[in-house]
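User: Predict the full complex structure for these chains.
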Amino acid sequence: MNRPQPVERMVEIIKKLPGVGPKMAERISYHILKMSENEVDRLINSIQKARETIKYCNICYNLSEHDPCLICADATREGDIICVVETPQDLIAVSKAKDYRGFYFVLGGALSPLDAIGPEDIRIDKLIKRLKSGSIKEVIVATDTDSKGEITAVYLAGIIKTLGIKATRLGYGLPVGGDIEYADEVTISRAIAGRTEM
Amino acid sequence: MNRPQPVERMVEIIKKLPGVGPKMAERISYHILKMSENEVDRLINSIQKARETIKYCNICYNLSEHDPCLICADATREGDIICVVETPQDLIAVSKAKDYRGFYFVLGGALSPLDAIGPEDIRIDKLIKRLKSGSIKEVIVATDTDSKGEITAVYLAGIIKTLGIKATRLGYGLPVGGDIEYADEVTISRAIAGRTEM
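Assistant: Here is the predicted structure of the two-chain assembly.
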């Protein structure tokens, strides 16, 4: 005996969500079958509501209920500095470090030659347009520190400098609150290179 | 800056699905925001369709498009033997071992004193009713082999025997295709106790 066809279909579709394997998709599916009518409505409504109300900001491509988003509409921010991130989640993470008061730009991914993701697949053309139009003096490249993020950062730095704008990268080093014992050697090397006088 | 409220709400609801932590709920939520209209429709439709068409079989409490389910409606099966499992997923697993040709009963969980799940929270009364009504000669207790499943099995065995019916439990031992090196000691002890002559 196999799973009933409608359950099978639900499992197949849920399996495609990021980080969800076949076993987990099955668990989630049977859980959904056991949920109350109310709970299922809430789940579906939350998805529909988010899909309806959340859009891309046409300036920074952050996801927001507003266009332009609240950050881009904030006139008190420093207008000559932009922080480039890969995803809206990264933007939220950077914004939680309260020190930064400039604007943002969300690339929507990173370059990945192995996955055939090139400059035309992320918003590099839109970033160039934005850099050309404004009075931007510095771009902080805050892509991830994995190989894709690094490739993207190097690629972006080239473009940014060609436009006569200063390109910077977030500093490498030990994460605050971390145990040196567990830091990997590359991070430690970077932290030594970036050591500061006390 | 925090996540937009509708995203926050979606994350909170998705976080409650089994095995989904906060980080994963966030990843899934942003993935859903990036999905095409079509993909979102497929996801929601598969959930709604499964909810509408799948019901409990009123004989064995398996989930099925039919009531009675195809197994309970199958007159070629052996009518005097029932296999008791915790969940519909367990039923599917047992049914894939083609040797068993009897019927099933899905408890809908296991006893768990620590979680205050007692006999009235799973379908023990319905199982007793079924055992009393039929011409059942043997009940195979196929609950999980964790502590909850074991407690449930012992509890059920008592009831089954009181009704004058034979109670059996699935055999313990090494899983087929497994490496002895990675088997835990309890499983090995059980396998030694259950050794067979070659």
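Chain A touches chain B through 49 residues (CB under 8 Å).
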